[in-house]
Amino acid sequence: MDLTDSAAEAAFRAEVRQWLSDHLTGEFAQARGLGGPGSEHEGFDVRLAWDRLLAEHGWTCLGWPAEFGGREAGIGEQIIFHEEYARARAPVRVGHIGEELLGPTLMAFGSDEQQRRFLPEIAGVRELWCQGYSEPGAGSDLAGVSTTARLEGGKWVINGQKVWTSLAHVADWCFVLARTDPDSTRHAGLSYLLVPMDQTGVRTRPILQLTGTSEFNEVFFDDAVTDAGNVVGAVGEGWKVAMGTLGFERGIGTVDQQVTFRRELAEITERARANGAIDDPLVRDRIARAWTELEALRCTVFRTLGRDGPPGPEASVVKLLWSTFHRGLGELAMEVAGPDGLTARGEPYDLDAAQRLFLFTRADTIYGGSNEIQRNIIAERVLGLPREPR
Q: What angle do CA 283, 289, 291 make, to 5 degrees?
């Protein structure tokens, strides 16, 4: 695996770097670093404006076909863009759920009409999306979904509750996994529905996190409706579509993620030098180990993205690696902070970056598929080992 840029890639990297330098000015310069875990509430309006500026200049949906608003960029160019974006500390995107999860899902499973209707709006950041998967009784065991949908008068009527729904409070639409066959159990009888959020049958309630912020939400569907044609794939085959979406979740977004991890590690190392923690040989060893793990993560991400076709079950390796690494990075941040990490900077709950990192990363090994589930997927679908007894 050659990680050096070709001449064409080096030119593209220079183009990306120059564009970011030219446009991260004025209000957007002030938005550098806004958003992200534990800070997702920061500067939403300016980040949305930034996303739309990216769209105007063709920097959203790089790998999408041109007919849907993309640039048909290869995987190498996509990696370069995400690396430079993260290095420039550009604002955290607000349209990533539509761009990285639903968009590829519609291209793989959606109808021509659905693609024409939704993909240009995602590429232009004119409609934002959230993911309606987890429920109070169906988190890691997603096949236990109990939210129902029945077809009535040309509409799907949806009832149930979703939880841990990221960005639901700002989303225009939600892709919802619901049980459309009342007599079905487990994976059978589920359908993948596209549901508008702005209606009386949908209520959103923020969940207060340890960080004091509320990226996640509860979403209640009380006779919410969507058009009969807003089912992706065949009715009753939503499990296959939902698993496709989870595969795409392990995709290109993991590149800027690991670059962000690198910046966080650099900040932790600098703090260790400033407060003397670096003089502790155990701390130095943990910092060196984190750097090594991050290099291994980078290579694994690139190897996974280099495969042809949509991500398969092997992508669970990446989720397992980055979530475990990032949780450990949060613990390292607090170890370096020492006693200062135990008190807030101000009233009522003003946390610094290390504290937010530590608190938010406690969830990394749970959301998006818990580590236990990822290990089962790797064991059963990659290594061919027997299924876990139930």
A: 105
pTM, two decimals, is 0.85
pLDDT tens-digit readout, 331-384? 999 999 999 999 888 888 888 889 999 999 998 898 877 888 889 889 998 899
Whole-angstrom Cα Rg for the chain: 21
Residue with tokens 């076909």: 65
CB of 303 within 8 A of CB of 2?
A: no
Tell me which of 1.20.140.10, 3.40.50.720, 1.20.1050.10, 3.30.450.40 is the CATH number of domain 250-382: 1.20.140.10
| pLDDT of the residue at 24 | 97
Residue of 249, 264, 293, 335 marked active site: 249
Burial 53-92 (b: 16+ CB within 10 A, else e): ebbeeebbbbbbeeebbbbebebbbbbbbbbbbbbbebbb
Residue ranges, comma separated, of all CATH 1.10.540.10 domains in the chain are 7-94
Report the relative pairing of strands 155-162 and 217-227 from DSSP bridges: antiparallel
Q: pLDDT of 207-219, one tens digit each?
A: 888 888 887 899 9
Q: Residue 249 catalytic?
A: yes
Using alpha carbons, select from 110, 121, 60, 115 the residue that is nearest to residue 90.
Answer: 60
Tokens of 207: 């969940």
For residue 287, CA distances in Å to 42, 87, 99, 356, 379 come to: 29, 20, 34, 19, 30
CA 225 to chain centre: 26
At the topology level of CATH, where does 129-236 sit? Butyryl-CoA Dehydrogenase, subunit A; domain 2 (2.40.110)
